[in-house]
Records
---
Amino acid sequence: MKKIHNPRQLAVITLNELEEKGDFLREVLDLHSRQNDLSPLDQGLYTELVYGTVRMRRNLDYVISSFSSRPLTKVTPAILNVLRSAVYQILYLERVPAHAAVNEAVKLARIFGHEGVAKFTNGLLRQLIRKKDTISYPDWERDPVLHLGLKYSFPSWMVEHWLSWLGPTETAMLCQALNETPKLNIRVNTVKTSVPELRDYLTEQGISSAPGKFAPDVLEVSPAGLVVKDQALARGMYYIQDESSALAAHALQVEAGQTVYDLCSAPGGKTTHLAQLMNNQGQIFAFDASGNRLALVEENARRLGITIIETTIRDATETWNLPPGPRVLVDAPCSGLGTMNHRPDIRWNKTPQEIKELVNLQRKILSAASKAVAPGGLLLYSTCTLTKDENQDVAHWFLQEHTDFSGASFPAWFPPGETEWMRTILPHHHGLDGFFLAVFRKQRR
């Protein structure tokens, strides 16, 4: 296969594949990054173009249609992706000169189309440059759903949900936060090193680090390219994990020597963190319905030097037939809307119907998990999403249906939240990925 050296051309190829095959963005981007020879600078532009164009797709289509002489349905998918990526550069990438974005888009229009569409592309983009200050959106007060959906590029159903839950001001702030470039967090593996030791090492490698906002064993690091390639990652000195996700293991308040059940374990980030907080003493039973995904748990445990995890293939909704334990984690399957900074394609791949199906699954898993908790023990329910249906509603349902449980409390240093036993991590308030945690205690007999 001939290698592509032009990051803009490779971005359009990637965008075309995503639409044709419906694959996961990260997987397609990683594949093309491995197969083609881009310089570090071009690799950065390629990644930004793909992520940004996918993220802002609805907004970009709205802008293009405002300046196009033909309906977007009459524009071929490949040329539409040329236009989208060019408009993204013009509107959102200040470091790219507008004329460069236009010239490159015209060249790509010839590659993916013909001279006629090249002229169409040139005319549309030059008109956009001249009149971009005139772009307007539907009236905020009259139609906040359409205004926010078009301006910040989210599907209407998602905006409607957040408006009904959070209100207009909070929803606007959330939309803005979910479109920001994500920061990279790592969890220091205190089984092998300490936070000060790792920070000193990272400084020597040219990597800057700062303490996490809440969790004591999390660092915010940059540049990302050096972090993911450093040998210390391969040696298990740290694990790449957003801080909001790292809060889950702390929330379960495990102790060395305990028995812990993790019902939805793969790929093992929270499982290995629990082992770390237990000083690698005790026993963690890690369950997942997929053997291939459990292999990732085992691989991560080996790299991190964790020896107390035992993996078993198991459907988390099955009736419980093992001795109850003092700590149980349900990091439930969810819609993942809290991770949209890292995974912008999620917003276009989820539906309200899928949310309803996930809620039913989450309830089944929690009901099964309730049998796994010993009297006096803790059960943690967590998701990486931002829907009231999957989070607060499921947590309240659980307490209503399982009267032998009550809300417990989080560590004193935890981010503030709505109740003593429930926390919603909101990107625009906490500066982290969206996340939800609810901790329950089983009554003693």
Note: The chain is about 50% helix and 15% strand.
---
Amino acid sequence: MPCYLHGLSTALPPHTLPQTLVQDRAEAILGPKYPQFERLLKTFITSGIDKRHSVVPLEWFEEAHGWSQRNTAYLEGATELFCEAAQDALQDAGWIASEVDCVITVSSTGIATPTLEALAFTRLGFRDNITRVPIFGLGCAGGVSGLSVARSMAVARPGSKVLLVVVETCTLSFRSDRLQKADIIATVLFGDGAAAVCISSESPADRQVVRFNAGYQKIWPDTLSIMGWDVDDNALGVVFDRGIPAFVEEEFAGALEGALTHTGLNIDQIDRFVCHPGGAKVVDALEGVMHLPQGILDAEREVLREAGNMSAPTFMFVLDKVLKSGKSGQMMACALGPGFTASFMPFMVEKQAA
């Protein structure tokens, strides 16, 4: 059984971080501590990123912060982003919060118990018998995997209204104490953001039809060290294996073939792949392994340029751009995340009537 898109929104926090300014501040903070920093300076330029957005101002990163301060900033910033994204998606769908039967929250950049949807409960006006499904640990695959979970919930309860909210505050993981290359790359790439979708098994009557079908995941054994978080006394510490682009080139084609077989499609039937842009090199690798024309993943590069890698919600920013561009046809959502996991979800966008 398919389910349908009723509303979609994206949200960015208030503090804009131009890449040139981030580079200058990172050089001032990390340069004296990290002997190889000068060699990595070029990554700020080649990243394909013009700016990011953060829940805290740039000055916040000049001081040391422990777990408590970082998580307090997460709780405040992520709750604000959650509410903004949820309210805008509900408005786009023509729903009100009290009509929502199930809310799914995807977030991996802080700890909230009670979880974010509970923190936003009174402010948004959810019913007291709403089903809450918080999901932690999906990382960059969280947008596609979360959408797959939301679809499953909508299909399991036909006619129910499901709200998915994806929120990440990646910038709060900035580290000036570990001095690992992965921390430099995170400083180059990471931004904060949120997105939300409203879906139901009932087709909307007054908007373009976007129909989601069952998702597919592939996890590779013995790959736990490729991507994720290290946890220590001070903060979360990003894990980025330098071989991710090469891994994509070697392994992604097989995972994609499995997803296509599972969904009964072949690659020639896909009119548009909609991908999570983890970084400029990853986007290049995806185009290569899927034999796409160089530069065809334009929406992915545009999101990366405007907001950086926001982890889980980034895919939904790309989805929003693709839909607003007027593209239609059979599409396939793709993302890679901790596990190491590839997440796929086919969806059909019907052509709008003239």
Note: The radius of gyration is 19 Å.
---
Amino acid sequence: MIRLGAVGDVVRTLPAVSALRAGYPHARLTWVVEPASAALVEAQPWVDEVLVFPRPKLAERLEAREFGPLWSDFRAFVARLRAARFDLVVDFHSIMKSGLLALASGAPLRLGYARPYGREASWVLANEHARLVPERCSRFVRNEALVEHLGLGVKADPAPLRVPSETTAKMRSQLGGERPVVLHPGTSDGTPYKRWTPEGYAKVAAALAERPGVPVLVTAGPARDDRELAAAIVEASGGAARHAPETGSLLDLAALFQESQLYVGSDTGPMHVSSLVGTPVVQILGPTDPVENRPFGATPSRSVRVPVACSPCRRGCSAATCIRMVSPDRVIAAARELLSDRP
């Protein structure tokens, strides 16, 4: 299997991979992934082996014009691919880079998407193509369509992201038995237009903290912007919210979400992690497509957005009018609705 790219794209492939395991219970399943998501993928019982594609290292070599070492590193990775002697490659990414890796593996059967989901002429490198109908669907449905194309007659596992018990126990201890609501305001550095306002999050925290037994925690990634945003929300909430425990890895973050009553945040990889561990989510949407990016269907969720004329779009803009127009009252109502369904 090949699914490179951002954390959100990788985790949304997990249900399809769990279905592959059900369809091929005795096969050896290997996942080609990039370093950022490798540890989380390695922890999943559906996967036997992880091959880490060294994209950051190759990019550094290219920027430094170290063409000899770059070619040597790439050849070493391809040699590992070919040595595995794969029978089938399922290319969930279906771009030129993943298509070339599938071709380099030497596998006789290479399954990818037909156009338009097969991009950058990747369909030329595949010799089996899945055509999706309807063409506009969620990433979860899109990924599972590749498995359905194989005719296996299986479904995704209802809990497609597993957190190791020791990681869960450690987080449970850090939380002291609390079952919080988690606010995750940050997004990737390249998508600041997905970020809702700190004032909005602070109002949500103040409203939800009025409910007995609902502590409100704010998470932050390692980036300075994330930490500053979290600090601004904690301060503006007037004591209603506090900082979440440190999460040094994606698995730690998944454990925190698993121990929480509710997740509130933008369209990010962590939001999909929360939905995949079964924690209900309130998804605050700006320019991103509400159909393609909806949370995992087996988990209760609410999406809050303002359908302005230019939304959805793929690039976003500095004005970010669509997400700034989302009112705290709507987010609070969605959160209370989901919390009322929780024991």
Note: The two ends are 38 Å apart (CA to CA).
---
Amino acid sequence: MLTFRDTFSRRDFLTVGSLAGLTLPMLLAAKAQGAQTGRNLTTGKSVIFLMMHGGPSQIETFDPKPNAPSNNRSATGQARTAIPGVTFGGTFPRLAARADKVAVVRNYHVENGNHDIKPMVSPYSLSANLGSLYSRVVGTLSPNGMPTNVALFPNSVDARGPGPRSNFGNFMSTGSLGASYSPFVPGAGGQMQQNMTLNVARDRVDDRRALLAQIDTLRRNIDASGGIGAVDRFHEQAFDVILSGVARAFDLSREDPRLVAAYDTQYHERWNDWTHKNNRNNYLAHARTLGKQLLLARRLCQAGAGFVLVNTEFVWDMHQDQNNLGVTEGMDLVGTPFDHAVSAFIDDVEARGLSDQILLVATGEMGRTPQLQPNGGRNHWGRLAPLFLYGGGITHGQVIGQSNANGGEPASDPQRIPNLISTIMHTLFNIGEVRLVSGLPTDVNRVITETRPIPGLFA
């Protein structure tokens, strides 16, 4: 939500256009650099990457193995889906009812069973957030001033929630691309509001000519003192970030309250008995915020963002120990909000006719062991992980690939992280056009163009 103060300073003007702590000239220079690569590079679609951080179980989510032995099959039972013969884990009844609109991949193999952020980091020498790679090609701002690369954490919608963590990897890493391509990270009551503050009295905001006249005066003062030439070139666009629908897209109070309520995952009193774990605050944040994070992500995509990370914080680590719940209690506390929020997102996107325009990808950094621990948890497992996709023009209502009998390995033709990244790139870019662009770093071009997408997703 925008805030307003009564004074207007040169320093604050340069802060207005700042995203992720960068100066206005840096950002707009980066945008100009990206824009030089051409206008036909993108499909016009957006990607929301829902990171199920902590390592979700493939068995309790989308591959329940109902005929496997009791210490192997889903501890939460199964839910019959809208696809004949296909079941999801028992905590996902809403998603099961919408299975004809989604695709799940049951032969998705990740590199290892380590806690990290590997599914959303570009390979080779880049080591950059996938959204930063996108911004490197198209620029940091869309034509209407929306950041092209945004990262949402629980505190983006609830000041009580945690922000980004870095002990398992830096979600904001730009690697060799440079800091100009950092994702925009809004924080409820924090940096986003500070960066999007306009220091002009509220009753003057609607008077565009008066505002621009004041900017012109500021510009002349800066020029007279040998100031920053970028203000001349880009002040109109910088203030469009504030005055157009861009800032409003971040403000959920402008949304229909009935829709906010439909997304709201709430917090169930029955979970109180399970929040004695050291991970309690993250469990609470996940339950309170995931729906609103997804609603905000949809709004941002509709307003021009190309890549939006939604991080659930570290709640899918279901070992059953002093920090974490086992899979039965964990899937109730973590999976129930996920089922509600993602289903609400699907319904919302379908109702708006945006299902071909926004791709939702949901996965974690690894999966879980096929065998349950005696205490009801599952350990780290890198040979198979759950992968869920909706929208973006993919062929929906299908299961791609199969796991073996105990749900621990791909039965054949494993799909890997590069295939997932390629699926995302094919959603965002016209690959043939990217191949013709000169001046892109070699590794950027390789990430976008070299690897095949997951087969069967695109008709």
Note: The longest strand covers residues 46-51.
